[in-house]
């Protein structure tokens, strides 16, 4: 064995990780520690955040991209570099800029930079988008491509849980780019989950007036903290479309509407709300094989723009970290509970059963 081989020798050890076995069946157990190959970096996870996507996976017992059960999951995380692989073959002579002990955050994917869509700058549509899962664990190994494209150092003044908000915020930053919110716009944001609340904040930062539409009073309170100017409870208004329109542009409707619920019937309402020439961002992903009805007359004569935004890009990941770092997005307001990795199964159960926390931070070790 050469010195280099010894230095990068693979460690055979185990770690605690949460694995999904099926519908609402998550077990925290000892699994082999992920090994570190050339170009890779292994993190000691310092904070992972629960997310609506994880809850969906938990409830359904599977994810389209999870081929075999049991599966490690969790995709919002920050941590400390615990091991650095040898330089990748593609970077001969060079060494990775990453050092053991560095505090870092990574996005949960990285585009290939070589496919049809990447060549057109449409990185979220990359035909070979590489995803990372397994944040609910003591360790996570990041693939070489994610290390190269989407691994960032955390500024000293940020906590790990704050930094872990980079992933959802990066998706929202991209949604803002697509929606083209202008100063003075009135924007209706439908849905007061983590994504809707982040949109409300970024719309305020962009100089817009924000109408928040949500179901629960506690979430509308957070919407107010995020800067929403008008709060509307969808269940309480006789006609939510009318209520939103009444509150924007002299009854004409908002300039922009952002749907953050992901239900076909809410998409339909979102499209009805906008003023003539409005941009409607259908940000909330609906279940597969569902359809929404379109008012064709209105779409044409009122010159509506319908837009979908999915996922983030390396550029919006960097912008998201910058926004958090500058204190422009009060991410701590959204992280409402903290729990240990061992408590994760109970946390997920509670979140499907009345626990109203926007996000819970999961700590593998205190
Ligand atoms: Zn997420
Ligand atoms: Zn690609």
Bound ligand species = zinc ion
Uncertain runs with pLDDT below 50, 5 residues or more? Answer: 1-11
Return the average pLDDT rounded to an integer: 93
Examine the secondary-structure arrangement and name the CATH architecture of the largest domain.
Alpha-Beta Complex
Instruction: Name the helicity range.
Output: 25-40%
**At the first level of CATH, what is the class of the largest domain?**
Alpha Beta
Overall structural domain count = 2
Distance between the termini: 37 Å
Largest sheet: 7 strands, mixed
| Annotated CATH homologous superfamily of the largest domain | Medium-chain alcohol dehydrogenases, catalytic domain
How would you sum up the global shape?
A: globular
What do you see in this structure?
- The chain has 366 residues and is α/β, with parallel strands linked by helices.
- The protein is 30% helix and 24% strand.
- The chain is built from 13 helices and 18 strands.
- It has helices at residues 3-7, 52-60, 116-119, 144-150, 160-163, 166-179, 194-205, 217-226, 240-246, 264-273, 296-301, 314-325, 344-351; strands spanning 14-22, 25-32, 41-49, 71-72, 77-84, 103-106, 109-110, 130-131, 139-142, 151-153, 186-190, 209-214, 230-233, 256-259, 279-282, 305-307, 335-340, 359-363.
- The strands form 4 sheets. Strands 3, 5, 6, 9, 10, 17 and 18 form a 7-stranded mixed β-sheet that branches. Strands 13-12-11-14-15-16 form a 6-stranded parallel β-sheet, sandwiched between helices.
- The structure holds zinc ion (2 copies).
- One zinc ion (ZN) binds at residues 51, 53, 75-76, 167-168.
């Amino acid at each position: 064995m050469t010195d280099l081989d010894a230095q990068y020798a693979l460690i055979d050890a185990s770690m605690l990780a949460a694995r999904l076995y099926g519908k609402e069946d998550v077990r925290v157990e000892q699994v082999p520690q992920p090994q570190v190959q050339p170009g890779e970096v292994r993190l000691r996870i310092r904070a992972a955040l629960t997310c609506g996507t994880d809850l969906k996976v938990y409830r359904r017992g599977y994810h389209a991209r999870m081929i075999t059960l049991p599966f490690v999951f969790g995709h919002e995380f920050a941590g400390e570099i615990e091991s650095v692989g040898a330089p990748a073959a593609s970077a001969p002579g060079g060494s990775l800029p990453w050092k053991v002990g560095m505090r870092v955050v990574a996005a949960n994917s990285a585009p290939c930079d070589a496919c049809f869509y990447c060549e057109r700058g449409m990185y979220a549509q990359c035909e070979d988008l590489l995803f990372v899962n397994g944040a609910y664990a003591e360790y996570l190994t990041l693939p070489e491509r994610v290390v190269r494209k989407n691994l960032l150092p955390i500024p000293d003044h940020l906590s790990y849980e704050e930094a872990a908000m980079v992933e959802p915020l990066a998706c929202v930053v991209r949604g803002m780019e697509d929606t083209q919110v202008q100063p003075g716009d009135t924007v209706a944001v439908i849905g007061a989950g983590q994504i809707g609340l982040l949109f409300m904040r970024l719309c305020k930062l962009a100089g817009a007036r924000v109408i928040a539409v949500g179901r629960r009073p506690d979430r509308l309170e957070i919407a107010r903290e995020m800067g929403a100017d008008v709060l509307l409870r969808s269940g309480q208004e006789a006609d939510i479309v009318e209520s939103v329109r009444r509150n924007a542009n002299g009854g004409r409707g908002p300039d922009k509407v952002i749907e953050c619920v992901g239900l076909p019937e809410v998409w339909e309402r979102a499209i009805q709300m906008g003023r003539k020439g409005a941009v409607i961002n259908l940000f909330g992903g609906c279940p597969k094989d569902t359809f929404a009805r379109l008012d064709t007359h209105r779409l044409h004569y009122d010159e509506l723009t319908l837009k979908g935004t999915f996922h983030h890009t390396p550029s919006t990941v960097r912008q998201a970290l910058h926004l958090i770092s500058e204190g422009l997005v009060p991410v701590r307001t959204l992280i409402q509970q903290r729990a240990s990795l061992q408590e994760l199964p109970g946390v997920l159960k509670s979140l499907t059963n009345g626990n109203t926390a926007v996000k819970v931070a999961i700590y593998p070790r205190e």
